[in-house]
Amino acid sequence: MRIDIITVLPELLKSPFEASILKRAIEKGLVEIYFHNLRDYVTDNYKQVDDYQYGGGAGMVMMIEPIDKCITKLKSERSYDEVIYMTPDGETLKQKTANFLSLKENLIILCGHYKGVDQRVRDHFVTKEISIGDYVLSGGELGAAVLCDTIIRLIPGVLGNESSALTDSFQDDLLAPPIYTRPAEYKGWKVPDILLSGNFPKIEIWREEEAYKRTKERRPDLLDE
Ligand code: ADE
C-alpha cells in the first residue's frame, strides 16, 4: 500500500511513523508513506496557501490551486483508490472504514487546516471525508495519523501475530474481553481460574461472554448495530 499525505505541516505528522508498528511496517516495505508540503505547490513568493473567505467571516480558507496541483501531479503518476479529506464534518471513523481502506493500493489523505479547504476541492477531488470524532482539532494532521494507524495495522504481515487484529475491540461490533498476564496472583488479586484451566474451548466461550457483557455495559449502541 502507498499513502500520500498532503499537509501544510509535515513536521506534525512524521513522528507517529518513526516508532513501533508503523515504523516496522515501513521498514518491511508493507506500506510506503509520502508527505507533500502544500507550500511546495505555490508559485508566489509568500508561499501563500490560504486566503480570506468570500462573503466575510473569521478564519482563513485553504486555496484550491496548490491542492489541485499536488493531487493532479500525484494522479498523473498512478491511480488512487480514494482521495480522503480529514474534516470534523466527515463520516465518523469506524473499524469498518479502516477494514475497507486497508484493502486499497493507493490512498491520498488531505489534511485540512485553518477553517478548512475551499468547497470546490471537496466537490471535485475528494472521494471520502473522514472525521476521527465529534470534536475539532487544530488541523487534520493528527486525524490523518490516527487513520493511518488504524489502516496500516490491518495490512497482512504488519502485526506479528496475524490473528491479533481480528480479536481487537470493534472487530465484531464487540469490545475486547478482559486480558491478563503473569503473575497469576498479585497482592491477592487473582486471574480468573478459567484462563489457567487449559480448557481452550471453554476459555473461548468465557471470552465471548465477557466481551458481550462489557459491550452491553459500556457501548450498548454497538449491539443495536
Ligand atoms: N480536523 C479538525 N477536526 C477534525 C476531526 N475531528 N477529525 C478529522 N479531521 C479534523
UniProtKB/TrEMBL annotation:
GO molecular function: tRNA (guanine(37)-N1)-methyltransferase activity
Subunit structure as annotated in this protein's UniProt entry: Homodimer.
GO BP term, pick one: tRNA N1-guanine methylation
Gene Ontology, cellular component aspect: cytosol
Protein localization: Cytoplasm
Protein name: tRNA (guanine-N(1)-)-methyltransferase
Upper taxonomic lineage: Bacteria, Pseudomonadati, Bacteroidota, Flavobacteriia, Flavobacteriales
Family: Belongs to the RNA methyltransferase TrmD family.
Catalytic activity: guanosine(37) in tRNA + S-adenosyl-L-methionine = N(1)-methylguanosine(37) in tRNA + S-adenosyl-L-homocysteine + H(+)
InterPro entries for the chain: Alpha/beta_knot_MTases, tRNA_m1G_MeTrfase_C_sf, tRNA_m1G_MeTrfase_TrmD, tRNA_m1G_MTases_N, tRNA_MeTrfase_TRMD/TRM10
Enzyme Commission code: 2.1.1.228
Pfam family for this entry, one: tRNA_m1G_MT
Function: Specifically methylates guanosine-37 in various tRNAs.
NCBIfam families linked to this entry: PRK00026.1 (NF000648), trmD (TIGR00088)
Superkingdom field: Bacteria
Keyword terms of this UniProt record: Cytoplasm, Methyltransferase, S-adenosyl-L-methionine, Transferase, tRNA processing
Domain tRNA methyltransferase TRMD/TRM10-type, first and last residues per copy: 1-224
Family matches, as HAMAP family: TrmD
UniProt-annotated binding residues for S-adenosyl-L-methionine: 112, 132-137
